[in-house]
Design brief:
Helices cover 13% and strands 56% of the residues. The chain has one helix at 2-21; strands at residues 35-40, 43-46, 49-55, 58-67, 72-80, 86-89, 98-105, 111-126, 129-140, 145-157. Strands 1, 2, 3, 4, 5, 6, 7, 8, 9 and 10 form a ten-stranded antiparallel sheet that branches.
């Protein structure tokens, strides 16, 4: 079962990276105007390479921070089925609202911390965009470590 969950985390991380790679600056549907910020284990980051999608009622958001001087890439991805204004409890993969924090050396397979507990608050969502806040504690079953993601906020256009 652990291998299956690890495979799910790896697949989702690669999906987010592939979703990011598919965006280019001259396409208005890339949601370049969106923004995401968060504090990870006490360090504040701006996730300035972003993307969002509202597919039916499922909302998918992601933000990536690339620190060239550290050669480190950090990504937060949020998936909420049946998205509407309100609070959503973070759950394990495949069980509802999912958040994943990934971090690793740029160009390598990152480590992933899946939200085990926390809350996503959608203040506003429409066919044109979404805005809200989030916090969660991510767990990495491979390394038995956790990361605390706090003070998170997003403001995206679809």
């Amino acid at each position: 079962m652990q291998r299956f969950k690890l495979f799910q985390m790896l697949f989702l991380s690669l999906f987010v990276i592939g979703f990011t790679a598919g965006c280019d600056d001259d396409d208005d549907d890339n949601n370049d105007s969106g923004g995401m910020v968060a504090t990870v284990n006490g360090e504040s980051y701006t996730f300035d390479m972003t993307g969002s999608r509202l597919d039916g009622a499922t909302m998918v958001l992601f933000g990536t921070n690339i620190n060239v001087s550290e050669s480190t890439t950090r990504t937060i991805s949020i998936t909420i089925p049946n998205a509407a204004a309100g609070d959503y409890q973070v759950s394990a993969l495949g069980a509802g609202s999912v958040v994943i924090f990934s971090e690793g050396a740029t160009g390598s397979i990152p480590g992933s911390w899946v939200g085990g507990s926390g809350t996503i608050t959608i203040n506003e969502v429409s066919a044109s965009g979404a805005e809200g806040t989030f916090f969660f504690t991510g767990e990495n079953p491979q390394t038995a470590t956790t990361k605390v993601i706090s003070n998170g906020s997003f403001d995206f256009d679809f």
